[in-house]
């Protein structure tokens, strides 16, 4: 059929057909898991590369054709997500906030908004500054390229109308994930860009070469005919004939099991939906087990396996294999604050009201899509981002915010469980973050825009840190999620700076043709105290960019994995997903996860080639 999924499902192996052991077990067939499984199973015929790879995925395929259309980028089908909530968040008025964790083959890439951008060079250089040699932007750029194929946009008239610019040299030409600009630009976007320029935010010619700050165009991960290009279509479907690659669906990895010498030798798995105590299967891994279960479950699996904070494991009755306090800590995201302006004299057509109020336009939109896969419905969540440096947002106040951050007692706003090592790690992070706060080449707030007056202001470099903690009374229940959103008052100060700057943007000369009228926060809220209250009632927990819960940092700084992505204190176990991020980059995370997992695969292959210790 259209997706060829009958054939795909025939390939999916039955638990009864499992071998006793594989060379590699990849835990989680989400975005990073499919990348790593593809690369590790490359070259199946020539020894010694004939590696048997098993991917174990909790979810299944999403074969709904609508999930491949750009409009799926804002739908987030509940069946493709874990049904979880965070604990009440004191920093945002005790609201619980949304949690996004994918539970489907392809993971986040199957359901995400298809905004395909990278962070700035500084974002990744900061990882290296934290003691992670080899992870700066120049070393990651080859992997960004390797994962991508940039297609020249199909409609030159749209490119000319929007003045969309790009530099093909920063993209790959034959990578598995396709990217391009869709054949539509809302006219209001051009006005918004011009207004940004007027308030000191220039437009980048191309952001993906390490310049994702100020204002810029962002491609979407879609193919030339505007179908979602994602881990399944790019890394899994094309390799379905490989005899050495197997995918087991609807199974949950409970634990990784270790030898006396603390070598990870097998995974214990259980059929999805079966109760605690139901039969499990143990599958062996001769070479390595790679955790790719995402920011929420990679730390949970580690903790269940005896790798995590000693006190937590003891409370849960789990024998300690490696006392790593950082497992499940360091949780970061981009908390969003919804800001709303109404454009009283909006241009036509616009994304806010034109399709609702003009039947002719609405019919044209549908027709354009069904006949040509073009027009407004070809845009997923958008193509324009402002990533605003703090020095631009708050030129007179940024030094005071930095001074406040540096004067804080580090433990004051961190989870009570933080050890001396973790505190030292946070102090290092704070040094780096405050340097970013005064950098003109790093975005601190993201303002996505697409011609409408309302958007989510996203805090790109928060000081607050959350946790993912095993339920000690039910190890197989979903873990306790605490984002600690805005718990550090510096995050509130940064958000207030962003709100004020948004107002400055709306007051720019070019913007006046749209007559922007503030709806929320509301013009009556002006003082720090008033805006602080607004922030706490309107900020959310997540933009689905959660990361950092098995961070790559030196162990003496509370890290969980080394720059080779190997888990400290054991052998044969690595992390290849978004959990390894030590400091959240100022970008949507999908492209970064492709680069991380491509690099992870190379690291794994290199150690296999050089012989394991
Ligand atoms: C709704 C949503 C919208 C987003 N929008 C964008 C966007 O527009 N642009 C952008 O750049 N980024 C976006 N992102 C972020 C990006 O998609 C993610 O950061 C990325 O996909 C994470 O990849 P991962 O491999 O670390 O985890 P995932 O892709 O989440 O993969 C983890 C996999 O592990 C499986 N799993 C979990 N536990 C177990 C277990 N115990 N045993 C076996 N399998 C298990 C899960 O089912 C899942 O398939 C979005 C994410 C979401 C969820």
TrEMBL record:
<feature type="domain" description="Glucose-methanol-choline oxidoreductase N-terminal">
    <location>
        <begin position="22"/>
        <end position="335"/>
    </location>
</feature>
<dbReference type="Pfam" id="PF05199">
    <property type="entry name" value="GMC_oxred_C"/>
</dbReference>
<keyword id="KW-0732">Signal</keyword>
<dbReference type="GO" id="GO:0050660">
    <property type="term" value="F:flavin adenine dinucleotide binding"/>
</dbReference>
<keyword id="KW-0285">Flavoprotein</keyword>
<protein>
    <recommendedName>
        <fullName>Alcohol oxidase</fullName>
    </recommendedName>
</protein>
<feature type="active site" description="Proton acceptor">
    <location>
        <position position="588"/>
    </location>
</feature>
<dbReference type="InterPro" id="IPR007867">
    <property type="entry name" value="GMC_OxRtase_C"/>
</dbReference>
<feature type="domain" description="Glucose-methanol-choline oxidoreductase C-terminal">
    <location>
        <begin position="462"/>
        <end position="596"/>
    </location>
</feature>
<comment type="similarity">
    <text>Belongs to the GMC oxidoreductase family.</text>
</comment>
<feature type="active site" description="Proton donor">
    <location>
        <position position="545"/>
    </location>
</feature>
<feature type="binding site">
    <location>
        <position position="104"/>
    </location>
    <ligand>
        <name>FAD</name>
    </ligand>
</feature>
<dbReference type="Pfam" id="PF00732">
    <property type="entry name" value="GMC_oxred_N"/>
</dbReference>
<dbReference type="InterPro" id="IPR036188">
    <property type="entry name" value="FAD/NAD-bd_sf"/>
</dbReference>
<dbReference type="InterPro" id="IPR000172">
    <property type="entry name" value="GMC_OxRdtase_N"/>
</dbReference>
<dbReference type="InterPro" id="IPR012132">
    <property type="entry name" value="GMC_OxRdtase"/>
</dbReference>
<feature type="binding site">
    <location>
        <position position="253"/>
    </location>
    <ligand>
        <name>FAD</name>
    </ligand>
</feature>
<keyword id="KW-0274">FAD</keyword>
<dbReference type="GO" id="GO:0016614">
    <property type="term" value="F:oxidoreductase activity, acting on CH-OH group of donors"/>
</dbReference>
<dbReference type="GO" id="GO:0044550">
    <property type="term" value="P:secondary metabolite biosynthetic process"/>
</dbReference>
């Amino acid at each position: 059929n259209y997706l060829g999924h009958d054939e795909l499902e025939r390939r999916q192996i039955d638990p009864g057909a499992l071998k006793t052991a594989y060379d590699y077990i990849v835990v989680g067939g989400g975005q990073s898991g499919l990348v790593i499984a593809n690369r590790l199973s490359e070259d199946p015929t020539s020894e010694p590369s004939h590696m048997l790879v098993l991917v174990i995925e909790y979810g299944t395929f999403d074969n709904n054709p609508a999930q491949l259309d750009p409009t799926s980028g804002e739908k987030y089908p509940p069946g493709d997500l874990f049904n979880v909530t965070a604990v009440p968040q004191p920093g945002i008025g005790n609201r619980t906030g949304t949690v996004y964790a994918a539970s489907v083959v392809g993971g986040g890439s199957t359901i995400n908004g298809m905004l395909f951008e990278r962070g700035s060079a500084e974002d990744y250089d900061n990882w290296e500054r934290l003691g992670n040699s080899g992870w700066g932007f120049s070393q990651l750029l080859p992997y960004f390229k390797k994962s991508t194929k940039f297609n020249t946009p199909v409609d030159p008239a749209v490119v000319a109308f929007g003045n969309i610019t790009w530099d093909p040299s920063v993209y790959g030409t034959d990578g598995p994930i396709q990217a391009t600009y869709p054949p539509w630009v809302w006219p209001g976007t051009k006005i918004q860009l011009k207004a940004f320029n007027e308030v000191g935010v220039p437009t980048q010619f191309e952001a993906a070469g390490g310049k994702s700050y100020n204002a810029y165009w962002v491609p979407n991960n879609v193919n030339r005919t505007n179908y979602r290009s994602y881990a399944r279509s790019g890394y899994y479907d094309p390799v379905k004939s490989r005899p050495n690659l197997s995918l087991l669906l609807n199974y949950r990895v409970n634990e990784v099991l270790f030898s006396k010498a603390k070598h990870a030798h097998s995974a214990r798995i259980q059929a999805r939906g079966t109760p605690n105590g139901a039969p499990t299967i143990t599958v062996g891994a001769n070479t390595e087990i790679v955790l790719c279960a995402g920011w929420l479950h990679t730390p949970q699996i580690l903790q269940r396996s005896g790798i995590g904070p000693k006190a937590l494991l003891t409370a849960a009755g789990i024998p300690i294999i490696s006392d790593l306090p950082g497992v499940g800590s360091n949780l970061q995201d981009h908390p969003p604050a919804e800001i709303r302006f109404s454009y009283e004299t909006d241009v036509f057509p616009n994304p806010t009201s034109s399709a609702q109020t003009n039947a002719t336009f609405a019919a044209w939109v549908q027709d354009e899509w069904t006949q040509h896969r073009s027009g407004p419905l070809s845009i997923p969540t958008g193509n324009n981002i402002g990533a605003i440096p703090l020095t631009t947002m708050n030129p007179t106040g940024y030094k005071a915010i930095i001074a406040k951050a540096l004067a804080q007692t580090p433990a004051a706003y961190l989870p009570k469980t933080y050890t001396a090592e973790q505190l030292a790690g946070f102090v290092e992070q704070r040094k780096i973050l405050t340097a970013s706060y005064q950098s003109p080449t790093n975005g601190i707030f993201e303002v996505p825009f697409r011609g409408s007056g309302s958007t989510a202001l996203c805090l790109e470099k928060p000081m607050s840190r959350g946790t993912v903690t095993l339920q000690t009374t039910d190890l197989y229940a979903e873990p306790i999620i605490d984002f600690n959103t805005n718990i550090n008052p510096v995050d509130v100060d940064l958000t207030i700076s962003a709100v004020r700057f948004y107002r400055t943007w709306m007051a720019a000369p070019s913007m006046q043709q749209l007559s922007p009228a503030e709806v929320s926060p509301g013009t009556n809220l002006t003082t720090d105290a008033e805006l602080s209250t607004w922030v706490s009632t309107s900020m959310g927990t997540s933009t689905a960019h959660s990361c950092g819960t098995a961070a790559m940092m030196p162990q003496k700084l509370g890290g969980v994995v080394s720059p080779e992505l190997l888990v400290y204190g054991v052998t044969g176990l690595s992390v290849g997903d978004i959990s390894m991020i030590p400091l959240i980059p100022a970008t949507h995370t999908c492209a970064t996860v492709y680069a991380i997992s491509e690099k992870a695969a190379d690291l794994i292959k290199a150690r296999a080639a050089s012989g394991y210790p």
